[in-house]
Design goal:
By secondary structure, the protein is of the alpha+beta class. It has a domain of about 170 residues: Hemocyanin, Chain: A, domain 2 (Sandwich). The strands form five sheets. A four-stranded antiparallel sheet has the order 10-7-13-14. A four-stranded antiparallel sheet has the order 9-8-11-12. It has a two-stranded antiparallel sheet with strand order 1-2. A hairpin with a 5-residue loop joins strand 13 and strand 14. The termini are far apart.
Length: about 675
């Protein structure tokens, strides 16, 4: 099968200590590895121009994820398949994370080839420099949950700008159409059998949060992501530090396990980003999302977070279950047993005769890459490695939610009213104490600093440490010598480490929030039938009053977070056969929206005295709200969403001596908060 395409990633010979090249965060790559960034943009533009009939073209590789729903690389269905081709979908399946790893590796292989091509085309005077940079290039990720300093956009301008400045292969600096902004369909010759469906075929390029005229609204995407960042970061840290079982961590299928602490998942967080970026555009629909260039940055981050979790839980990778009807797809028949040796079709390994399976994609090294946090070769032993990882997660994602809240308030500079859209300031909470309320909306950080007795100018000058410990650029903007041309290596005495999280770093007047170094974490659990509305929908969770106009909800001041459900049409309305089975068997999915950071804001404002359940539960009964909108942003009645249940649970968290949170694992349910309300969970409902 010489012509068979393999999903091997970039061929790599690890260093003597096991080192391999690093996939870097997109802002780090752009700022500190300028030659690699330059050839990344040129290489991606080259890949996007390849004919759609080329199996390793951007269009063809993106199509594996959904439309145009044609077999790829000659990989047909299983012997028991009774339906026409309907994709290789593994969403809401325990294979969700394993399947996407070789998928990303194959995309990276195609991208790498284009990067090498453009590097070799530079003038002789600079060619060797770019070829050296290209040698260890790996595709970047976008960390949408990291703490953003100052007024930086949560949605990087490298992704949202229509044009980009590059040094082209002729050696001349010039602007080009930014290949990360969108993917162009209009300049492609697409045969009818490879075309997208009529709903999506009308667009000349991919769209993000399109307006009524079909224009992308990237600034709105940025505001939406920023507005819900606290809840998103809390969700990531909860998953990485408190989830110990792979089946709970991986996908969003409801397990009916009666465990209220297992409603979150990496797939749930994944869906949230799809929805926030898409908002009626391509990323919001799984069947066409892979055509948006941000898809690959997003999924590479999902792969990274999984790699971090794997390093923290090296012995938790159990995959052994009988495939139910709702889990079957074109290559996996209902009734078969899914295990770690189940084929991940259509991705062949280097033999070109065998497919990858979950057991063999457990590690990233065979695919030729690692992440800044997963450079295992830099650590003397496993204990040191895991201790450092926990510290990194705690600092980077606010795992110590008490410290995270107060430290973020202290170090961020105040915003100005002009920077806050009217939709975000139209409905302040009516009961906020007046000192905080008048400034909290237009100047939220500055107001909180004044309440806490902090000096905004002084606190804004506090410097933060780079989160990944990676080598940085030289003053002249050149490439770090240890970075572009070879994998990062260091002796054991020079190990990469995160800044140690402070055990407790809160103003004295709020010390009562952590008696005996413990506090109560509150989480909203949500559940619904995935395809109950035959389209993508989301459930917004609010704490306090909000504008009744659903158009304002994505940037509403009092929105805490969302539960995004990437549903599709049932009854044959979608070619996705797994989706059809999911719909027919009433597959339910789950998600979480952490509430603690929002509650802390109300404590600072004087509306709440503590995190004690005796105080918080009645407060949530009066102030917690939820509403539903569908794919186009219009409101849908809560009580008409099949299977929707909203609940609130809490768990005790102890802050360790090292500042890392330790979760009790015991969750209490609070049915009084939601019982009797539309879609509210009651004491008699199943967990």
């Amino acid at each position: 099968m010489a012509s068979t395409i393999t999903a091997t990633g970039v061929a790599t010979t690890p260093g003597p200590n096991g080192s391999v090249p690093i996939r870097r965060e997109i802002r780090d790559l752009q700022a500190n590895y300028k030659d690699q960034w330059n050839i990344y943009l040129l290489g991606l533009a080259d890949l996007q121009k390849k004919p759609v009939t080329d199996l390793l073209s951007y269009y063809s590789v993106a199509g594996i994820h959904g439309e145009p729903f044609v077999p790829w690389n000659g990989v047909t269905g299983n012997d028991k398949s009774t339906f026409r081709f309907g994709g290789y979908c593994t969403h809401s399946s325990i294979l969700f994370l394993p399947w996407h790893r070789p998928y990303l590796a194959m995309y990276e292989k195609a991208l790498y080839a284009s990067v090498q091509k453009v590097a070799s085309q530079f003038p002789e005077s600079t060619r060797a420099r770019y070829i050296a940079a290209a040698k260890n290039f790996r595709m970047p990720y976008w960390d949408w949950a990291t703490r953003i300093s100052g007024r930086d956009s949560a949605f990087p301008t490298a992704i949202s700008s229509q044009t980009a400045s590059v040094v082209d292969v002729d050696g001349v600096t010039k602007p080009i159409n930014n290949p990360l902004y969108s993917f162009q369909f209009s300049d492609k010759k697409i045969p009818p059998d490879l075309a997208l469906d009529n709903n999506w075929n009308q667009f000349p390029d991919t769209k993000r949060s399109p307006d009524q005229n079909g224009n992308s609204q990237n600034p709105l995407v940025s505001r939406v992501i920023t507005n819900e960042s606290a809840s998103l970061r809390n969700n990531v840290s909860l998953l990485l530090l408190s989830y110990k079982q792979f089946d709970a961590f991986s996908d969003n299928a409801w397990r009916q396990s009666n465990k209220p602490g297992e409603y979150g998942s990496m797939e749930d967080v994944h869906n949230e980003i799809h929805d926030k970026v898409g908002q009626g555009g391509h990323m919001g629909s799984l069947k066409v999302s892979a055509f948006d260039p941000v898809f690959w940055l997003h999924h590479t981050n999902i792969d990274r977070l999984w790699a971090i979790w794997q390093a923290l839980n090296p012995d938790s990778y159990a995959i052994d279950k009988v495939v139910q009807t709702n889990e079957a797809n074109f290559t996996i028949a209902a009734g078969t047993r899914v295990t770690a040796t189940t084929d991940l079709k259509p991705f062949y390994d280097s033999s070109a005769t065998k497919f990858w399976n979950a057991a063999r994609v457990k590690n990233t090294a065979p695919f030729g890459y690692a992440y800044p946090e997963t450079q295992r070769w830099l650590y003397e032993n496993e204990q040191t490695y895991q201790t450092t990882l926990r510290s990194q997660v705690t600092v980077q994602y606010g795992g110590n939610v008490i410290n995270n809240f107060f430290e973020n308030i202290a170090i961020l500079p105040p915003t100005t009213k002009a920077e806050v859209p009217s939709a975000e300031i139209s409905n302040p909470k009516p009961a906020l104490n007046m000192k905080f309320a008048k400034k909290a909306i237009a100047h939220p950080v500055q107001a909180a600093q004044e309440v806490l007795g902090l000096d905004p100018a002084k606190e804004a000058s506090v410097k933060t440490t780079a989160s990944d410990g990676a080598p940085k650029a030289q003053a002249n903007g050149g490439t770090p010598k240890s970075a572009e041309n070879k994998p990062t290596t260091a002796p054991a005495s020079a190990q990469v480490s995160a800044p140690a999280p402070a055990p407790l770093n809160i103003p004295p007047q709020f010390a009562h929030l952590v008696p005996n170094r413990t506090y109560t974490e509150y989480v909203t659990n949500l559940r619904a039938l995935k395809h109950g509305l035959s389209q993508t929908f989301r459930v917004y969770v609010f704490l306090g009053d909000f504008n009744p106009d659903p158009r304002t909800w994505p940037t509403e001041h009092n929105v805490v977070g969302r539960f995004a459900v990437l549903g599709q049409g049932g009854d044959g309305a979608t070619p996705c056969t797994k989706c059809q089975h999911d719909a027919a068997s009433d597959l339910a999915v789950t998600g979480t929206v952490p509430l603690t950071s929002a509650l802390l804001q109300d404590i600072v404002s004087g509306q709440l005295s503590s995190l004690d359940p005796a105080v918080v539960v009645p407060y949530l009964e009066a102030n917690l709200h939820w509403r539903v909108t569908v794919f186009d942003g219009s409101e849908h009645p809560r009580d008409q969403v099949p299977g929707l249940k909203v609940a609130v649970v809490s768990t005790e968290v102890r802050i360790g001596d090292d500042g890392v949170p330790v979760y009790s694992g015991v969750y209490d349910s609070h049915p009084g908060i939601t019982d009797g309300r539309p879609a509210g969970w009651g004491a008699g409902d199943q967990v």
